[in-house]
């Protein structure tokens, strides 16, 4: 037997090795797609919006109490800042003269109710089909 024929040099990968690598890559991508990382980013943004809305509601209710229970001077962020109830303006939040505050969510759990809305009449915040 010739030594050169006994020592064949293997170049490249075998078909089985390539198939295993492709299968592993497929499993990794399917896990990433199944977890939907973009949804988590949107939910984090929505959580921040809800916190901002809560901060604005607290400021508005403090203003309401101090202004003889009237929302007349508490229905704009500029008025809340000027009165010392709010430090800085909060974007994407809508105030209404009746004490309603709402924000549009990016990833609402109920697509028919894309707004997070606080009503001063009920004193509750919940998902809503429309803003204020």
UniProtKB/TrEMBL annotation:
InterPro entries: N_methyl_site, Pilin-like
Keyword check for Membrane: yes
Membrane-spanning residues: 12-34
Pfam families with a match to the protein in the record: N_methyl
Source species, domain of life: Bacteria
Keyword terms of this UniProt record: Membrane, Transmembrane, Transmembrane helix
Gene3D superfamilies xrefs: Glycoprotein, Type 4 Pilin (3.30.700.10)
Name the record gives this protein: Uncharacterized protein
Species name: candidate division WWE3 bacterium CG08_land_8_20_14_0_20_41_15
